[in-house]
């Protein structure tokens, strides 16, 4: 029996006791920590890994394979969880991630490591998306704001602890412990989820859109390879990049055609008829794009312009990260009390744009205290945007689409990051080509953007005059990078003004919440009020809780 009827897709709300919610949420946070930690912990171990396994020319793929697999699989995990239920699928993603971690730690060649990292990334794509979707299952939108700060703390912890742990394990144990450390953390997360989480199980027999899934994965892979390779491995106008871009367009057009006729589309096109979904995904794309100007290039500024070590340059980002965590936590509690949220991403994007303009004023004479103040402005803004918009999109869509809506939010954030790195990398390289000949002393060795980004600490071994010249050129180039990023944040502000604020559902919801929900149109054309997530519901397709 197909479950094409929308009612068969309405996943049941669930009401857990406070102790169960806290235990489940702790397991979800550990899972998010695993996925986000592995994006940062490997970087400091890469030189040692190459020294032992060889394959310097393939080094970047240790990171790229993970990110590519995680991004491409994100919408697939989200949609399948909407069709089959989330608990068993989430447990599967944890197991896949842990198997990939164990195999990565035991790899005997760089080729093996790259393959196992892709497997690990496949699990990571589900960890992040399903964890956030399960939070939507067990906590009403009105109450969910309280939990946003804890989620943000996980990302801060991963950003700071990742490089430090990577260096610690590499220096005192073995680079293999960079991967083995996931096993005990994952085991605790798996135990917590298995014992505390009880969600109704879907009993229908949905038809998976395998062709749509394959086309989406192929199209996203082409897009990500264009942004990863463009200007790095291959010139932007090279046949490889042009061919990949053309393939991306052709495959994504075929994907849209497939989704229009699929019984159970992997990414339902009806979502794009929801103005909240459209605005949120576009704003998340723009926000993350602007964010990566700061996250990628501020460490470069600290290392090359101010002479900080690689580890210290990561710690110098703490003001930005802590400011973002603070506003996410505070704003989340305000949202839980008031049920209103639109003002926060608007104010946050304004602060992000202002912060980027301030960062563009930095030069070789800027003190670290001043730089920290500028980063706080930017971080305060970012903390009011990303997590709040995920809450907005989860609140706006029908319950049957919570998984794919959350996955789409994460997907557009990932794409925004990839495009941001490519865009700002190209801007930085072009400006550096202009400024280096002006700022370097005559007869200095050739330096380019790629070598500076790959080995910024190598600058410390150069003569003082060359170091000063490179520092001046990098500061001038980053001025342009931040100036280009500021209008992107401002564009996000302009778009978010069109966000229709749907009052948050849940206990103590504001007056008008029912009216806001009433009359949403389902795919079959029947107009029905949306369920209140705070009340337990048992539709016919839901079996006994697991």
The helix/strand class is mainly alpha
Helix content: 55-70%
Regarding CATH, which class of the largest domain?
Mainly Alpha
Instruction: Please tell me the overall pLDDT.
Output: 79
Order of helices and strands: HHHHHHHHHHHHHHHHHHHHEE
CATH-level-2 architecture of the largest domain: Up-down Bundle
Number of β-strand runs: 2
What ranges have pLDDT less than 50 throughout 5 or more consecutive residues?
1-14, 508-546
Main sheet, how many strands, which sense, barrel? 2 strands, antiparallel
CATH superfamily of the largest domain: MFS general substrate transporter like domains
> Separation of termini?
22 Å
Total domains, how many?
Answer: 3
Classify the beta-strand content into a percent band.
under 5%
| DSSP summary: helix tally | 20
Apparent shape: globular
CATH topology (fold) name of the largest domain: Growth Hormone, Chain: A
Radius of gyration: 23 Å
Strand order of the largest sheet: 1-2
What does the secondary structure layout of this molecule look like, with pairings?
Elements: H1 18-37, H2 46-53, H3 61-84, H4 87-105, H5 110-138, H6 141-172, H7 177-180, H8 182-196, H9 210-229, H10 239-261, H11 275-305, H12 310-315, H13 318-338, H14 343-359, H15 368-382, H16 386-396, H17 402-439, H18 449-454, H19 464-496, H20 513-517, E1 520-521, E2 527-528
Antiparallel strand pairs: 1-2
Helix pairs in contact: 1-5, 1-6, 1-8, 3-5, 3-9, 3-17, 4-5, 4-8, 5-17, 6-13, 6-16, 9-10, 11-16, 11-17, 11-19, 13-15, 14-15, 14-19, 16-17, 17-19
């Amino acid at each position: 029996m197909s479950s094409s009827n929308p009612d068969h897709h309405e996943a049941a709300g669930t009401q857990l006791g406070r102790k169960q919610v806290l235990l489940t949420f702790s397991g979800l946070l550990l899972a998010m920590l695993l996925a986000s930690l592995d994006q940062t912990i490997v970087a400091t171990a890469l030189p040692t890994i190459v020294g032992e396994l060889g394959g310097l020319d393939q080094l970047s793929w240790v990171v790229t394979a993970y990110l590519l697999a995680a991004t491409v699989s994100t919408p697939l995990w989200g949609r399948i969880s909407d069709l089959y239920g989330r608990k068993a699928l989430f447990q599967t993603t944890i197991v896949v991630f842990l198997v990939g971690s164990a195999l990565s730690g035991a790899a005997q060649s760089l080729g093996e490591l790259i393959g196992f990292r892709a497997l690990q990334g496949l699990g990571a794509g589900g960890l992040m998306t399903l964890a956030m979707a399960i939070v939507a299952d067990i906590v009403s939108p009105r109450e969910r704001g309280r939990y946003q700060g804890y989620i943000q703390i996980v990302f801060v912890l991963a950003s700071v602890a990742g490089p430090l742990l990577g260096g610690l394990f590499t220096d005192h144990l073995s680079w293999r412990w960079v991967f083995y450390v996931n096993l005990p953390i994952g085991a605790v997360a798996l135990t917590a989820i298995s014992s505390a989480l009880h969600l109704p199980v879907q009993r229908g027999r949905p038809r998976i859109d395998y062709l749509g899934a394959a086309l989406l994965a192929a199209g996203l892979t082409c897009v990500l390879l264009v942004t990863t390779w463009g200007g790095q491995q291959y010139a932007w106008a090279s046949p490889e990049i042009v061919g990949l871009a053309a393939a991306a367009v052709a495959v994504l057009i075929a994907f849209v055609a497939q989704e229009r006729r699929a019984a159970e589309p992997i990414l339902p096109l009806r979502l794009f008829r929801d103005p909240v979904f459209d605005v949120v995904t576009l704003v998340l794309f723009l926000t993350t794009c602007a964010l990566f100007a700061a996250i990628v290039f501020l460490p470069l500024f600290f290392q090359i312009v101010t002479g900080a070590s690689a580890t210290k340059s990561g710690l110098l980002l703490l003001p930005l990260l802590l400011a973002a965590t603070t506003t996410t936590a505070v704003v989340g509690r305000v949202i839980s009390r008031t049920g209103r949220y639109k003002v926060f991403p608007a104010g946050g994007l304004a602060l992000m744009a202002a912060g980027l303009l301030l960062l563009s004023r930095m030069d070789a004479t800027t003190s670290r205290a001043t730089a920290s103040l500028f980063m706080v402005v930017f971080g305060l803004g970012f903390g009011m945007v990303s997590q709040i918009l995920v809450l907005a999109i989860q609140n706006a869509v029908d319950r049957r689409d919570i998984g794919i809506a959350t996955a789409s939010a994460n997907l557009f954030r990932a794409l925004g990051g990839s495009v941001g790195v490519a865009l700002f990398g190209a801007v930085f390289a072009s400006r550096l080509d202009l400024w280096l000949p002006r700022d370097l002393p005559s007869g200095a060795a050739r330096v380019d953007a790629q070598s500076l980004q790959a080995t910024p600490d190598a600058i410390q071994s150069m003569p003082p005059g060359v170091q000063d010249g490179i520092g001046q050129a990098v500061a001038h180039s980053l001025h342009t990078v931040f100036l280009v990023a500021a209008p992107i944040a401002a564009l996000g502000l302009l778009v978010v003004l069109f966000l229709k604020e749907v009052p948050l559902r849940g206990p103590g919801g504001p007056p008008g919440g029912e009216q806001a929900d009433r009359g949403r149109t389902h795919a079959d054309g029947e107009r029905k009020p949306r369920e209140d997530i705070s009340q337990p519901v048992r539709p016919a397709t839901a079996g006994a809780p697991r």
